[in-house]
Amino acid sequence: QGGKDQTKKGSNIKLGLQGDKKGIGQDPRKEGSLESGHHLKLEELMSTLERTRQELDATKQRLSSTQQSLQERDTHLTNMRQERRKQLEEILEMKQQALLAAISEKDANIALLELSASNKKKTQEEVLALKRERDKLMHQLKQHVSTTA
């Protein structure tokens, strides 16, 4: 029995060595398919990289276009704000001129009534009323000038 065991072990050793030889050398068909698989995987990755680069370029172009559009709109907005500010200044100046004209009109009416030299109570009341209106207009003018400054 001891001899039979050794024979079995010896044949197992021989099979083991032959099995190792097959493992080292491997089947050429398997090696080719591995290389082919790696090559296909590499081509797939290269293709994906190229698509990604193209998408990046397209995104860069859209970003550039968007930035240019934004810059144009910002310039337009700045111009519109300047125009608005100019118009507001003109409106405020016109308002100030209207107040000055109203004050001048009140002064002229007061002067006319005072020149009439009639001491009638009605005339004096009109002069006082005109002076009150003139004072109100002066107050508005002062407020207007203080808000624009």
Explain what the structure shows:
By secondary structure, the protein is mainly α. It is 94% helix and 0% strand. The protein has three helices and no strands. Helix 2 packs antiparallel against helix 3. The longest helix has 88 residues, at 28-115. The radius of gyration is 51 Å and the shape is rod-shaped. Residues 11-24 have low confidence and may be disordered.
Features:
mainly alpha, 3 helices, 0% strand, rod-shaped, cytoplasm
State mean pLDDT (0 to 100 scale).
82
Low-confidence stretches: 11-24
End-to-end distance, in Å? 122 Å
Task: State the order of secondary-structure elements, H for helix, E for strand.
Answer: HHH
Determine the number of helices (DSSP H or I, runs of at least 4 residues): 3
The share of residues in extended strands comes to under 5%
The multimeric state of the shown protein is: single chain
Structural class: mainly alpha
Write down how many β-strands occur, each being a DSSP E stretch of 2 or more residues. 0
Task: Write a short abstract of this structure.
The protein is 94% helix and 0% strand. With 149 residues, the protein is an all-alpha fold.
Helix and strand arrangement:
Layout: H1 2-25, H2 28-115, H3 121-148
Helix pairs in contact: 2-3
